[in-house]
Write a structure and sequence with these properties.
CATH architecture: Alpha-Beta Barrel
Order of helices and strands: HEEEHEHEEEHEHEHHEHEHHEH
Distance between the termini: 41 Å
Bound molecules: ligand PBG
Number of helices: 11
CATH class: Alpha Beta
Shape: globular
CATH superfamily: Aldolase class I
Strand content: 15-25%
Number of strands: 12
Length: 331
């Protein structure tokens, strides 16, 4: 058979025909914008490794939230930086702690904006780990205790729901966290609040800039005893499977760019909505290259967003969300 001339190029000849046959679309409804809130007042501090991303004190938050809503972004993910950190991360679950107050403030100002609360202890613990640390005197070995951490994480999730969080997003990677948090939410009367589980979360160097932003770098050791080994793909399915069995409503894969195969396989194996987290280091790399004039930021970011959707993500958590929303408006 003769190979038909222009077989593939026939459908690429004009912008209109390309629009007609496009398989994947990015919409402003896919976007979730992470926001950092900090104690104090009058603070709008740029995070040096994440140009364009700021830490806001509550009094500075309103205009940012208004802008997000104005752009048509429907959901934000909240991270809190407390003034005071301790061994047990008690500022994570105080009824009037920074995240709880931010949730109330945002829901008052923009009732339709979905507020997703990240549920973890690492921003609140003095040692920077995502749970309770036990140090064995004899061996000087430090362990992050699973069940003791779960108790505090459940308290955190319930207090976030009480403050008005629309979705609970536990990122701590303790075993059984979805089961424990689902039980705690149900018992407190929050059966209707969904859990977006950080089901597949790798121990990644791409979180570096976030840890500057949230001042949450571990003070000793690393997170490899609870976050996943980047080399493992089958294990991702086991992680997702247990979270789904425990009652997760949305499953997340994190980071994004180096884990597109994982997004695809989670998509292919589960029928729940899948979220991809385009993490801090991925954002910083784009910003650094763009600020040097080495890449076309808009084109690169839109290609990344399209990649997440094509791999099977239903939603994308991204620090680029405001820019993407603007670009979608004028495209
Ligand atoms: C908290 C948490 C982290 C991120 C989201 N939730 C950091 C970590 O696990 O060290 C990373 C987000 C990002 O890099 O953008 N556990």
């Amino acid at each position: 058979m003769n190979y038909p001339i222009a077989r593939h190029r026939r459908l690429r000849g004009s912008r209109s025909i390309r629009n007609l046959v496009r398989e994947t679309h990015v919409s402003v409804h896919d976007l979730i914008y992470p926001i950092f809130v900090t104690e104090g007042s009058g603070i709008k501090e740029e995070i040096s490794s994440m140009p364009g991303v700021y830490r806001y004190s509550l009094d500075q938050l309103d205009s940012e939230i208004a802008e997000v809503a104005e752009l048509g972004i429907q959901a934000v993910l909240l991270f809190g930086i407390p003034e005071h950190k301790d061994e047990h991360g008690s500022e994570a679950y105080g009824d009037h702690s920074i995240v709880q107050e931010a949730i109330r403030r945002i829901k008052r100002a923009q009732p339709d904006l979905l507020v997703i609360a990240d549920t973890c202890l690492c921003e609140f613990t003095s040692h920077g780990h995502c749970g309770v640390v036990h140090r064995d005197e004899a061996t000087n070995r430090a362990d992050v205790l699973n069940d003791a951490s779960l108790t505090l994480l459940v308290r955190t999730a319930v207090s976030q729901a009480q403050a008005g969080a629309d979705i609970i997003a536990p990122s701590n990677m303790m075993d059984g966290f979805v089961h424990a948090i689902r039980g705690g939410l149900d018992e407190a009367g929050f059966e209707h609040v969904p859990i977006m589980s950080y089901a597949v979360k790798y121990a990644s160097a791409f979180y570096g800039p976030f840890r500057e932003a949230a001042q949450s770098a571990p003070q000793f050791g690393d997170r490899k005893s609870y976050q996943m080994d980047p080399a493992n793909a089958r294990e991702a399915l086991r992680e997702a499977e247990s979270d789904v069995a425990e009652g997760a409503d949305i499953v997340m894969v994190k980071p994004g760019l180096a884990y597109m195969d994982i997004i695809k396989s989670v998509r292919d194996n589960f029928d729940l909505p899948v979220a991809a987290y385009n993490v801090s280091g991925e954002y910083s790399m784009v910003k650094a290259a763009a600020n040097n004039g080495w890449i076309d930021e808009r084109a690169v970011v839109m290609e990344m967003m399209t990649g997440f959707k094509r791999a099977g993500a239903d939603m994308i958590l991204t620090y680029h969300a405001k820019d993407v929303a603007r670009w979608l408006k004028d495209s």
